[in-house]
Amino acid sequence: MYVWPCAVVLAQYLWFHRRSLPGKAVLEIGAGVSLPGIVAAKCGAEVILSDSSELPHCLEMCRQSLEMNNLPQVRVVGLTWGHVCPDLLALPPRDIILASDVFFEPEDFEDILTTVYFLMQKNPKVQLWSTYQVRSADWSLEALLYKWDMKCVHIPLESFGADKEDIAESALPGRHTVEMLVISFAKKDSL
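Structure for Histone-arginine methyltransferase METTL23, as requested:
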């Protein structure tokens, strides 16, 4: 299995914050091979992995990763971004949502944020920890975050030991600028 640079960077961020993870309720969306979710579970978080309910092979990949890492307590659920389904409705409140390179296609951004917004309604203090590969200077989440009453903080990779040089030297074609964001509800000003 190939692990994308974004998943590695997010896993490094989790490892850097490993002492704060025990007991945290974590959901990884678009989990794929699930490296960030596995790291969170190994650090003591109560983790649920999810990928598209329309892509059963992705859900199977999550299950295989859990089996290889001896994590039978971690659940896998099918969630399709932007769709309200029984599994989404049944999810308990989460403290952290993980998303590694889900902001891949601009036409999916709104659906992803719709799903995240729904989850934030269950716990307004939840944070979305996300990494993504910059693919175009024209793509921006800022307007959508404003629309959904969210804000983001850009986290410098060097602040948690991620090495930009290792990412740049990846075997993948093209440039490999990875960004780390923490997204949360915007605070309302008092009147």
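The domain at 8-14+31-185 is CATH 3.40.50.150 (Rossmann fold).
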